[in-house]
Specification:
Distance between the termini: 58 Å
Largest sheet: 12 strands, mixed
Number of strands: 12
Low-confidence stretches: 301-308
Strand content: 15-25%
CATH architecture of the largest domain: 3-Layer(aba) Sandwich
Number of domains: 2
Order of helices and strands: HEEHEHEHEHEEHHEHHEHEHEEHHH
Helix content: 40-55%
Shape: globular
Structural class: alpha/beta
Oligomer: single chain
Length: about 350
């Protein structure tokens, strides 16, 4: 039976790989015939403990886990790709899927226990609250003061252009759904966003799709700093391999805090298993502290509270910058600032 499930999973994987870009994939065989098919933006390095914990409770269930970018995930669900559960860090894209009728409802005691700001209409459920941070190379910042605010970062980049030329990394928001969310929310919350973007743009910044790649390049010394990466990824990579070469800074003037969310796609076949996984994630999201889990809980830590913790809210306001005209205008301004010739 395991071989049969594996064969089905491999054929599905081949078909999906042809339909959209897949970053990673792993199949976890269970003892029974059922398969839970998950598409997620979370790297296996950080999410595998959650999969194994869930499968320990449901050993009969096989798990087919596909990693894709937030934009690819959004497109796959809208185009009817056969997944039972979608997990994404791009809250705006998840909300649009639910608002447009691409999600099925789920309700339980565990989801009812979530704060109102962490769920929407029994369709979207948050299970982490993750701040955006700046990741610095300790070697490249030797002799420099570590900036604590965006204005301090702007002043530092202006004062040392030679040191930071070609050594600043951030998201390419034209391709990264999470990067676009961070940028639009920051632009709404602080005037410093556009000034910082223009300063970065003069330094020939390197643009990325994903947090992990930026953090790896900081650790390797190819970047002096990476701006607006997921703090959870930075902490996980520091624990594994940074050797003290990486520092994490949460800006004190304002912090974007995203909610990583789950929804059951309209085309899901194994809705029971998908709901059970959501309940497991909700339970972990409600824990009192981070513990040994790679991703942080929903409740803010003392450090988060000191840094102006306030998660981006689930609601219709998330779709303002998904309007085609608003998106075109925002990307135009961003390109003028960041992609300077």
């Amino acid at each position: 039976m395991r071989l049969a499930c594996l064969a089905v999973a491999l054929s599905l994987f081949a078909a999906l790989a042809a339909a959209f870009e897949i970053e990673d994939h792993r199949f976890y065989p269970g003892t029974g015939p059922q398969v839970l098919k998950i598409i997620s933006t979370a790297d296996l390095e950080v999410f595998e403990p959650y999969l194994l914990a869930f499968q320990a409770q449901r050993p009969e269930l096989s798990i087919d886990y596909t990693v894709a970018s937030s934009a690819a995930l959004y497109g796959a669900i809208r185009n009817g790709a056969p997944f039972d559960l979608a997990l994404s860090s791009a809250m705006d894209l998840q909300f649009r899927l639910a608002n447009d009728g691409f999600a099925l409802p789920h309700a339980s005691d565990r989801t009812d226990a979530l704060p109102d700001w962490a769920r929407w209409r029994d369709l979207i459920f948050a299970f982490t609250a993750e701040p955006a941070v700046v990741v610095l190379s300790a070697d490249r910042f030797a002799g420099l003061d570590v900036p604590a605010t965006r204005q301090e970062l702007i002043s530092l980049l202006r004062a040392y252009p030679d040191r930071f030329q070609g050594a600043v990394g951030t998201y390419d928001i034209r391709d990264s759904g999470l990067g676009y969310l961070f940028a639009t929310q920051e632009a709404r919350s602080t005037d410093a966003f556009w000034r910082l973007s223009e300063v970065m743009g003069r330094l020939a910044p390197r643009l990325y799709c994903c947090s992990g790649q930026m953090i790896d390049d900081v650790a390797a010394g190819r970047l002096a700093l990476a701006y607006n990466v997921l703090g959870s990824y930075a902490v996980e990579r520091m624990a594994r391999a940074s050797g003290g070469r990486v520092k994490i800074v949460q800006m004190q003037d304002f912090s974007n805090v995203i909610l990583r969310t789950a929804l059951v796609p309209r085309q899901a076949e194994n809705t029971g298993a998908a709901g059970a996984m959501i309940d497991k994630l909700a339970d972990l999201g409600l824990r009192d502290g981070p513990g040994t889990w790679p991703l942080p809980p929903l409740r803010p830590s003392a450090d988060d509270a000191g840094g102006g913790f306030g998660p981006i809210r689930l609601g219709p306001a998330l779709m303002v910058f998904l309007d085609p005209l608003n998106r075109r205008d925002f990307l135009g301004e961003w390109e003028n600032a960041m992609v300077q010739r």
